[in-house]
Design goal:
The protein is mainly α and 134 residues long. It contains four helices and four strands. Helix 2 crosses helix 3. It is elongated, with a radius of gyration of 34 Å.
């Protein structure tokens, strides 16, 4: 069957691409495990351990007597990770707007209409100044 002119061969478009690793991590993180007699998700356990490292510099692996000890660099990485995921990434500082010097106008940036209006204002001001008493 020949293609019809002006009609897409794939009207629904390309299917969305899966986020393979993100999907796998999401699925693994949602599974629950028993820690100290309580059921918690792996995601919650990871969050607890990150906070434990950030506040004490170490975290105990559940179900073992092994302790993870974070050196200064590891601790700082954990704190940065938590900060970026709780508050979001740092926003760049906005560049300061350029403000013209008070009392000065850049005439090259005015339109012809604005220049005509300015000329009328200045002409009136000059005429009023010539007739007024000091």
């Amino acid at each position: 069957m020949p293609f019809q002119k002006g009609k897409s061969g794939n009207p629904k478009g390309r299917p969305p691409r899966g986020r393979a690793l993100a999907d796998i991590l999401e699925k693994a993180g949602s599974k629950t495990i028993v820690v100290d007699g309580h059921r918690v998700s792996r995601r919650e356990l990871m969050a607890r351990m990150l906070w434990e490292i950030a506040t004490t510099g170490e975290a105990t692996l559940p179900g073992t007597d092994r302790t993870l000890v974070a050196g200064a660099g590891g601790w700082l990485d954990v704190v940065k990770f938590i900060y970026s995921h709780v508050d979001g990434p740092a926003r760049p500082e906005p560049e300061p707007e350029e403000t013209p010097k008070q009392g000065r106008i850049d005439l090259s940036k005015l339109s012809v209409e604005e220049l005509d209006t300015l000329e009328r204002i200045l002409t009136r001001a000059a005429g009023a100044g010539a007739h007024s008493d000091p």
